[in-house]
Amino acid sequence: MSILRGEQVHQKIWEQRKQRSPGRSAGAPGLNCLVLGGGGREYAICWRLANCSSVSTIDVMPGNAGLGLFTRVIDRRADDAHWLQQHVLASHIDLAIVGTDELIAAGIGDVLRRSGIAVVGASREASKIEWSKSFAKELMDEAGVPTAKWESFPDAAAAGEALERWDAPVVVKADGLALGKGVTVAQTRDAAVEALASPPANSGRVLLEEVLKGEEASLQALVDGETVVALPPARDHKRVGEGETGANTGGMGAFSPTAVLPDDQAQAVADAVIAPIAKALARRGTPYRGVLYAGLMKTKDGWRVLEYNARFGDPEAEVTLPRIEGDFAKLMKALGDGRLAEYVAENPMRFSRRAFVDVVLCAENYPASPKIGMRIEGLDRLPEGVFAFHGGTKRDAAGNVTVNGGRVIHVVASAETLAQARELAYVAAERVAYEGKFYRSDIAGQEVAVA
Ligand code: AMP
Ligand code: GLY
């Protein structure tokens, strides 16, 4: 696949629209797609769809400022089930991809499936693997997937008492969805006590876990019942500070490929840590259809699963979706229709050799409540080979692009080597300007240093 520059992608999709006008009538050629969410991950999904000749139109809810350049942005909440079902009918939607964890946990995948279209998005029941960490742990034990030792408690007080037995270092995890911010790796007993006393661990079920040591990797796979197809592995940088220090975030940057989990081992690892889960869910009568992501650690005793997410990773999607060769929209449609095994038998999965690096430009005060509203400049001054995948951005009344969330712009660079991609990403990161901008300067640094 030739990777198009951002502007070329926009131009291409508009040309396609013109040629196929009126694109939204029943039976018109090309896929009408709907993507739910409005962050960098959803931008990556749309960008990759826009690169497919099979795609006719793309709708996004609620979208962001950048998505408005090449998709139809529907500026309303994406969890209005009744409205969504009407929209699917009225706009002849063929394929829906649910991007965010909240929407998947809210059962929007189920709502869309009732409309009879292809849906990439796990059911509410199957996505419990993400919205309840204790459920995920039970399932791992049942399926024989290796993970850190754990114990689950009804509340922080009960976990606090158990610290007598557990002691530090220990991992404190809130059971529910926490946007990547619900985990504290406590080196001391005091730090564990503090974590248990603060949100989100101080409200509801809590887990204590053994601290594992090793290198982390992110492995996403397409799962359709018992069929599991690995996507390109990636690495993510979760901590806000350089050298992996400070609070956990949704992710400060990512890169793919990675030497920790090379492309040619992806399927074997997915067979070991994702396929048994897919089987267990099918056995329980809640089969999985969508993207299942395993957060992994390579310990001296082998791979261990830290967590599962019921969706594409963010920022992993930004560096892995551009590496998937072939017609991504047709692949997603096959998954959404429940035809993944047949489709990949005829169209084997191939990853491009190009390296991708995403450096996330954040808003002041992220991951706590970010400061928003500032005007963003320099998006038109990026070097060749770099795209600005919009995350938390919004267009103001005067048409300026402004900060509207914690992870504002993902500068996504591609090159022959990871070192070149990294260099390009940092040139671009400097050129984008807004008040309060900050980013980590060590994304992919270690990997490049040892390469
Ligand atoms: P999670 O949201 O469960 O992936 O956790 C976020 C981050 O916390 C992971 O990427 C790890 O860096 C760290 N973490 C989670 N669980 C453990 C563990 N058992 N041992 C060491 N680090 C962990
Ligand atoms: N990058 C981690 C996540 O998507 O949760």
Q: Helicity level, as a percent range?
A: 25-40%
Rg computed from alpha carbons, rounded to a whole number of angstroms: 21 Å
Principal-axis shape equals: globular
Taking strands numbered 1, 2, ... along the chain, how are they ordered across the largest sheet? 3-2-1-4-5
Oligomeric form: single chain
Give the distance, in angstroms, between the N- and C-terminal Cα atoms. Answer: 26 Å
Q: What's the CATH topology name of the largest domain?
A: D-amino Acid Aminotransferase, Chain A, domain 1
Annotation, overall tally of beta strands: 22
Q: Helix- and strand-based class?
A: alpha+beta
Overall pLDDT confidence: 93
Uncertain runs are 17-22
Largest sheet: 5 strands, parallel
CATH class of the largest domain: Alpha Beta
User: What fraction strand?
Assistant: 25-35%
